[in-house]
Design brief:
The structure holds 2 protein chains of 2 kinds. Chain A is an alpha/beta fold. Chain A folds into 4 domains: about 5-95, Beta-Lactamase, CATH 3.30.450.20; about 100-180; about 205-365, Heat Shock Protein 90; about 385-505, Response regulator (Rossmann fold, 3-Layer(aba) Sandwich), CATH 3.40.50. In chain A, about 45% of the residues lie in helices and about 25% in strands. Chain A has helices at about 5-15, 50-55, 100-160, 165-200, 210-225, 245-265, 305, 330-340, 395-405, 420-430, 445-455, 460, 475-480, 495-505; strands at about 15-20, 25-30, 65-70, 75-85, 90-95, 205-210, 230-235, 240-245, 270-275, 290-295, 345-350, 355-365, 385-390, 410-415, 435, 465-470, 485-490. In chain A, helix 6 runs antiparallel to helix 8 (about 330-340). Chain B has one domain (about 5-160): P-loop containing nucleotide triphosphate hydrolases (Rossmann fold, 3-Layer(aba) Sandwich), CATH 3.40.50.300. By secondary structure, chain B is an alpha/beta fold. In chain B, strand 2 and strand 3 form a beta hairpin. Chain B has helices at about 15-25, 70-75, 95-105, 150-160; strands at about 5-10, 40-50, 50-60, 80-85, 110-115, 140. The chains are: A alpha/beta, B alpha/beta. The interface of A and B includes residues 46, 64, 68, 115 and 123 of A.
C-alpha cells in the first residue's frame, strides 16, 4: 500500500463529514465515527445537538466546538465538532480526539489539584496572618489600656513609700509594689508572646546576681502561697552567681514554672534547685556557664501521653480542674524563651507523684564588683529646670506633682491641660523639657510635635520632647522616632525612670 | 408540550458543577474530584406550573474566569448558573466582574449564583458571611447532601420561562 493511502485511511477513520439542513435534517453522513442515518434529525443523535437547529441560524461562518463528550450505545468518544456554512449549506465535521483528550486528562487533573491545594495554603496563610495581626493589635491595645491605671497605681505606691509609714505598713506596701511590678512585667510578657513567635524578641545582657535573684523568687512565692505546701529554694555553692544575662527572661521562665507547680499541687512541696549543669563547657578558661534549674512538685502529675503536648500554646491539661497555667501565659512561652536563650527544657512526670521541669540555661560569668563606698553628697548650686507636663486627667496630674515635689534635681513642674495652653506657656516661659501624653485633648501628638518643631523661635523648636504613653505598638513608636522626639517613656514608669528620661533629654 | 432549555454551568474548576448535575440528574454523589474536560451534557425534565421543561444542562470545564470559557459553548444558552465554592475564596473573590461580564454579553439571559459545598458551613462560618450585594438572592447548595439543588434548578428553569 502506498504511504499516501495509509495516511488517507488513518485520517478518514477519525474524521466524519455530515451535511445537514437548517432544520437539522441529515442529508449526508459518511459514518466514519458514528452511524447517523440519512433522513434522521441531528438533534435526535445526541443531547449536544438537541437545540442545534436554533443556533444554526446565528452562525455566519465556521464555528468550532472542541472537546465534546459523547456516549452512544456505551461507546465514549471525545470529539471536536466544526460547523462550516457554505452556500447556505451546513457541513459538520467530527474529529475523534478521544485518545488525545484522555491522555491530557491526568495532566489537567494534577494541575487543577495543585492549584486548589496552593490556593488553600495561601488562604490559610492569610488567615493566620490576619489572626496574628488581630492578636497583636488586641494585645497592644489591652496593654495600653492597662498601663495607664497601672502607672497611677505604681506611682502613688512609690509616693506612699516616701511618706512615714510603720514597719508593718511598709512591709504591706512592698508586697503591693511587687505585685504591681509583677503586673507590669506580665503586660510586657503578653507582648513578648507575639515577639517570640515573630522571632523579633531580643535578649538583654546585663549584670545580675543569681543569689539575690533567687532570694526574691523565694520571698515572692513564700508570701503568695503561705499554705500547706512547703516551698524551698536551694542554690548549690558551686554555681556561679555573678552572671551576665537576661534576668527578666529568667524570672519570666521560673515564675511561670513555679506558678504552674503551685497550681497543680494541693499538698506536699514545691522546690527550686539550682545546680551546675553536667552540660557545662569543659574548658576552665571559658567564661560560659550552664546552670541547671530543677522545679519539682509533688502534684497530680501529667499522664505520659500528654507530656509531649505540655509545651503547646496555652495548653491546659484538664481545663475543668485546673486554673490557667502560670499567669495565663502557658508553658509555650517558657519553652520559646529557653530556646531563645540557647537552653533546653525537659519534663518528667508521674501521675499522683509529681512533675519535674529541668532547665539548662547558659550564662556568661563575670567577676563580682566590689562594693563601692558611698560618698556623701556635697551641696552645690542647682539651676532650676522648667519641665512642662501636658496632662488633662486629674489623677495623672497629681502623680506628676507628687513626683516633682521636693525633688533633688531642681526640676520645676508646669502644667498644661491641652496643646493651646502648652504653647501659651512655651511662649511665656523658658521651658527645658516637654513631657506630653499621646492623647492631648485639642490635638494629636504628631501635630503637637510638628507644631513645636516648626515654631519660629529657637527656644521653643529646640525644646526636647518626652512622650509618655502606654502605647506599645512598634509602628507608633517608630513614627515618634521619625519625629525626633528626645525620649519615649513607656507607662508604667517610676519616678526614677521619669527623672532619668528628663536628665537624658537635657543632656542631648 | 415539552420545552427544551439550555442551561450552562459556569465557574472555577473544582467548585462542584459536575457534582451538582449528578445530584440533580442521577441523584448520586461522589467525594472524588475528577476534572471535567470540555463539556458533558445531561438532560432532566421537570414540571413547572404544569408544564414539562427539559433542561439540557451543559457542564463545562471550569475556568478561572468566564472570558476563558469557550465562547461556542455559550451559544444558544437560555440560562446560566454561576457556581462557586463557599470554602475557596479564589472562586468568588472576583464574582462581581464575572457577573458584570454575563450582564454585558448576555443581557437578556437569566442567571443565578450558587454557593456550593454549603455542607462545609459551620456555626462560625455561614451564609451570613456572604453579605455583599452580589450574593443577594444566591443559592447555597450542597451536592453532597442534596440541599437546595432541586430548588435551584427549578427556579432557574422558571426564570427561563418568564
Amino acid at each position: 500500500m502506498a504511504y499516501g493511502n495509509l495516511k488517507k485511511q488513518l485520517f478518514e477513520s477519525r474524521v466524519q463529514e455530515i451535511e445537514i439542513s437548517q432544520k437539522g435534517e441529515v442529508i449526508f453522513s459518511d459514518n466514519a465515527i458514528f452511524n447517523i442515518p440519512e433522513t434522521s434529525n441531528i438533534s435526535n443523535f445526541h443531547l449536544f445537538f438537541e437545540l442545534f437547529p436554533e443556533i444554526l441560524t446565528s452562525i455566519n461562518e465556521n464555528i468550532q466546538f472542541p472537546c465534546i463528550n459523547i456516549e452512544i450505545d456505551g461507546v465514549k468518544k471525545i470529539i471536536d465538532v466544526e460547523v462550516i456554512k457554505k452556500d447556505k449549506r451546513y457541513f459538520l465535521f467530527f474529529f475523534d480526539l478521544t485518545e488525545h483528550y484522555e491522555n491530557s486528562q491526568p495532566i489537567v487533573q494534577e494541575k487543577n489539584e495543585a492549584s486548589i491545594a496552593k490556593n488553600k495554603l495561601d488562604f490559610e496563610k492569610k488567615l493566620l496572618e490576619a489572626k496574628e495581626e488581630f492578636k497583636n493589635t488586641f494585645l497592644a491595645n489591652l496593654n495600653h489600656e492597662i498601663r495607664n491605671p497601672l502607672n497611677n497605681l505604681l506611682g502613688f505606691l512609690e509616693t506612699l513609700s516616701a511618706s512615714s509609714l510603720s514597719y508593718e505598713q511598709m512591709e504591706l506596701l512592698k508586697v503591693a509594689q511587687k505585685t504591681g511590678l509583677q503586673l507590669k512585667v506580665l503586660m510586657e510578657d503578653l507582648l513578648d508572646i507575639s515577639k517570640i513567635e515573630d522571632g523579633v524578641l531580643e535578649l538583654k545582657h546585663v549584670n545580675f546576681n543569681l543569689s539575690t535573684f533567687m532570694a526574691a523568687i523565694y520571698k515572692h512565692f513564700q508570701h503568695k502561697y503561705s499554705s500547706d505546701i512547703n516551698f524551698t529554694v536551694e542554690t548549690d555553692s558551686k554555681v556561679h552567681t555573678a552572671l551576665i544575662g537576661d534576668p527578666n527572661r529568667l524570672h519570666q521562665i521560673l515564675f511561670n514554672l513555679i506558678e504552674n507547680a503551685f497550681q497543680n499541687t494541693y499538698r506536699g512541696s514545691v522546690s527550686l534547685l539550682v545546680v551546675p549543669s553536667p552540660n557545662n563547657p569543659r574548658t576552665k578558661s571559658s567564661n560560659e556557664t550552664v546552670i541547671r534549674f530543677i522545679i519539682k512538685d509533688t502534684g497530680k502529675g501529667i499522664a505520659q501521653e500528654k507530656i509531649s503536648k505540655v509545651f503547646d500554646n496555652y495548653l491546659q491539661l484538664e481545663k475543668e480542674k485546673l486554673k490557667p497555667l502560670g499567669d495565663g501565659l502557658g508553658l509555650k512561652i517558657v519553652k520559646n524563651l529557653v530556646q531563645l536563650m540557647n537552653g533546653t527544657v525537659a519534663v518528667e512526670s508521674k501521675i499522683d507523684v509529681g512533675t519535674e521541669f529541668i532547665l539548662d540555661i547558659p550564662f556568661t560569668t563575670r567577676i563580682p564588683k566590689k562594693k563601692a563606698y558611698k560618698t556623701k553628697k556635697i551641696p552645690g548650686i542647682y539651676i532650676n529646670k522648667n519641665i512642662l507636663v501636658i496632662e488633662d486627667i486629674k489623677d495623672n496630674q497629681m502623680l506628676f506633682f507628687k513626683h516633682f515635689l521636693n525633688n533633688d534635681e531642681a526640676y520645676v513642674m508646669h502644667l498644661a491641660t491641652d496643646g493651646a495652653m502648652a504653647f501659651s506657656l512655651l511662649e511665656k516661659k523658658r521651658i527645658d523639657v516637654i513631657i506630653a501624653k499621646t492623647t492631648i485633648p485639642d490635638m494629636d501628638i504628631f501635630s503637637f510635635i510638628d507644631k513645636v518643631k516648626e515654631h519660629p523661635e529657637d527656644s521653643i523648636n529646640k525644646t526636647p520632647i518626652i512622650v509618655a504613653s502606654g502605647n506599645s505598638l512598634l509602628e507608633f513608636q517608630n513614627t515618634l522616632e521619625e519625629k525626633e522626639i528626645s525620649n519615649y517613656l513607656m507607662k508604667p514608669f517610676t519616678k526614677k525612670e521619669l527623672f532619668k528620661a528628663i536628665k537624658e533629654s537635657l543632656n542631648q | 408540550m415539552n420545552i427544551a432549555k439550555k442551561v450552562v454551568l459556569l465557574g472555577h474548576f473544582g467548585v462542584g458543577k459536575t457534582s451538582l448535575v449528578r445530584r440533580f440528574v442521577d441523584m448520586a454523589f461522589s467525594e472524588e474530584y475528577l476534572v471535567t474536560m470540555g463539556v458533558h451534557i445531561k438532560k432532566k425534565t421537570i414540571t413547572i406550573n404544569g408544564e414539562d421543561i427539559s433542561l439540557i444542562i451543559w457542564d463545562i470545564e471550569g475556568k478561572n474566569n468566564i472570558e476563558e470559557a469557550r465562547k461556542s459553548y455559550l451559544l444558544g444558552s437560555h440560562a446560566f448558573v454561576y457556581v462557586f465554592d463557599v470554602s475557596r475564596p479564589e472562586t468568588y473573590e472576583n464574582i462581581e466582574s464575572e457577573i458584570d461580564y454575563i450582564k454585558e454579553h448576555f443581557n437578556s439571559i437569566p442567571y443565578c449564583i450558587v454557593g456550593n459545598k454549603a455542607d462545609l458551613f459551620t456555626k462560625d462560618f455561614s451564609e451570613s458571611f456572604f453579605d455583599k450585594e452580589v450574593f443577594k438572592n444566591s443559592y447555597f447548595t450542597s451536592a453532597k447532601t442534596g440541599d437546595n439543588v432541586e430548588t435551584m434548578f427549578a427556579e432557574i428553569a422558571q426564570k427561563t420561562l418568564s
